[in-house]
Every structure is written in structure tokens, then in C-alpha cells.
């Protein structure tokens, strides 16, 4: 099939699946990567996708060789993507006093940070040679200010924001764009486990449509929904003492096994 190609990680559920649906609706070919390939195949069959319009690649973004191999297979089988979306990520509460949570922190960084860089890696040379393409990092509003009990996730998403900003400057001379999308609360299986209020929560399909349009425009950085961007900026401006009091007693994200 003709048409532009998008490569999406974490495409078996949640935001990744919603983005795949939105790009398919716009006539794009899909390269979908995830550990749970069976769920992607079942979803594609349910959506009635033409087998020529998509390909599925089994990969674990926390394993560098695994996700790099998936990217290279995409290059060989479908060509150079026009857009690469590093969406796969995990979010687990941590307590640094617990030894087992140090392993959770390491796994979070391996997935959310190293995995993001490894997702981009296979495509950089080809995009640079072609002098076009867009790399998209899915960050989070949680990366703008730290939340008690969310140390691994907040730190990893702050790193996504900084890393993508660095990469944007590096690739500008090659005309390759880097877009950072920071979701607020999006209704997915992941966020449904949260035990605290989630203001301005969006259905995944609404988020995907807004993200699609931001990526099409080549926005360097976008918070979705915009209201959460305003909230985050206000929280960033608060003095530490006031911010700490404001969050005192706030319910924390579930730790592993809870």
C-alpha cells in the first residue's frame, strides 16, 4: 500500500492503540510494536484492518537489542517511517526505603528512557539521509513537578522531556523534527488503577486526535489537554514549602504487588 508510515511502540493497549486507530483513520500505514503481539492482531482483526496496511513487531523496549531489531525489521519490510512514536512506558509507585523498589526504578528507567532512545535509534540514519521525518516522545505532565510516591515515573518523564529537547537541537540541521507530547490524565487501563482524583481526564480517542494534530503541525512541545499545562505551570511556580503542604497526605500510586 502507498501512504505514509507510522511506527508506534506500546501499541497493544491504551494511548498506543488509540494512536494506531487515529493514524489508520487518516490513511497511514502502521508499524506496531509491543510485547503482546496477539492483542494487536486481535485488535486489528476487530477493526477490520487490511493485512497490507499494517505490520506487527514483537519487542520489549526495556531490552535494547529487542526494540532495535524490531526497528530494523520495519525498515526492511515497510521502509523508513515518516513518524516514529516512542509511546511504550510503565508507571509504578515506589518507596526508596524498600529494596525491591530500587529494581522497579531501574526497570522504569530502562523502559521509559533507554527504551525511548532505543526506539528512535534504528531510524536516525535513514531519516537524516532523507532529510525528513518526525520522532515523537510521549512524556507526561508528571514530568514537570515531582509527586510523592511517584519518584520513578516523574523522574523518568522529566528525563523524556529533557532528552527530546536535546535531540531536537541535534537533528534540526538534518530537518528531522522531534515532538514532545505530555499527556495529562487519559482514560486507559493504566490510569484506571489510580486512587486519586484525575482532573480534565480525556478519553483515549480524544487524546489521540489532539496528539495526531500536534504531530502533524510539528509542534515541538505540547501538553494535552491544555488545561493540565496551565495547572502544571502554576504548580511549577509555587514555592517548595507551599507545594509540599499542598501535596501532604495525597494518595500515592500503587507500588508493585499492591
Describe the protein's architecture and organization.
The chain has 258 residues and is of the alpha/beta class. The protein has one domain (5-247): 3-Layer(aba) Sandwich (Rossmann fold). The chain contains 8 helices and 9 strands. It has a 7-stranded parallel sheet, with helices on both faces. Strands 7-8 form a two-stranded parallel ribbon. Helix 1 (14-25) crosses helix 6 (204-217), helix 3 packs parallel to helix 4 and helix 4 (99-130) packs parallel to helix 5. The longest helix is centred in the middle third of the chain and has 32 residues, at 99-130. The protein is globular, with a radius of gyration of 18 Å. The model has no long low-confidence stretch (mean pLDDT 93).
Largest sheet composition: 7 strands, parallel
CATH class: Alpha Beta
Number of domains: 1
The helix-strand sequence is EHEHEHEHEHEEEHEHH
How many strands appear in the DSSP assignment?
Answer: 9
CATH topology: Rossmann fold
Fraction of helical residues: 40-55%
Number of helices: 8
Give Rg in angstroms.
18 Å
Give unreliable regions as ranges: none
Relevant terms:
9 strands, alpha/beta, Rossmann fold, single chain
